Every structure is written in C-alpha cells, then in structure tokens.
Amino acid sequence: MKLKIIELEKGKIRLSLEGEGHTFMNALIEEILADSEVDVAKYVIEFQFSDSDLFITMKVGSKKDPVTVIREACNRISMKCDDLLGCLKN
Predict the structure, then answer these.
(1) Is the pTM here over 0.85, yes or no?
(2) Residue 41: φ, ψ to 5°
(3) Is 16 exposed, middle or buried, given 0-12, 13-18 or 19+ CB atoms closer than 10 A?
(4) Per the count of CB atoms within 10 A, which of 2, 15, 39, 42 is most buried?
C-alpha cells in the first residue's frame, strides 16, 4: 500500500491511499471512530478507479496525533484478522 500525505497539521490529516477501495476504508474508518478523541473521520473515492482520500480531525484539546490514531486503528484491524485466522485453523 502506498500513501501520500496531502495535509498534516496539529489535530488534522488528509492523505491518499493508493489502490484501496470501500472494503478496507470502511473498516479503517470504523476503527478510527472508535477512538474517543477523534472528531471527524471520513474518506472519499471520487471516481471508480481513483485512490481513496482519508480525512481525520481530532477533538479540540486532544493531545493525540492523527498519525498515531491511524496506526492504532490499523493494529486493531490486524489483530482482529489474526484472531479470525486463528479460529479458522482450529
């Protein structure tokens, strides 16, 4: 997966994820929004074959960095996938 950071400010990030569609982006948004310090998390796929743009803003006064929020969300997704694979092996 390739990503390009378009905008990065304190409490806000906008980035492009190459080749990712609705399946991954919906899972990622759900995990990001599970963080209580996130204010807005959304993605846009402008055209059918265009890259996904992800936008996240943190709540006012949040000390958490949006990049950290993305990393934590991806780790939770990975753990859930590992758990599922473990169940399928037994």
Answers:
(1) yes
(2) -145, 120
(3) middle
(4) 15
- pLDDT above 90 (res 47): no
Spatial distance between the Cα atoms of 48 and 26, rounded to a whole number of angstroms: 16
R_g of the chain computed on alpha carbons: 14
Look up residue 70 and give its two tokens. 């993305």
Judge whether residue 4 has pLDDT over 70.
yes
With tokens 């949040």, the residue in question is 62
In terms of C-beta density within 10 A (0-12 exposed, 13-18 middle, 19 or more buried), how is residue 57 classed? middle
Q: What is the CATH architecture of 3-89?
A: 2-Layer Sandwich (3.30)
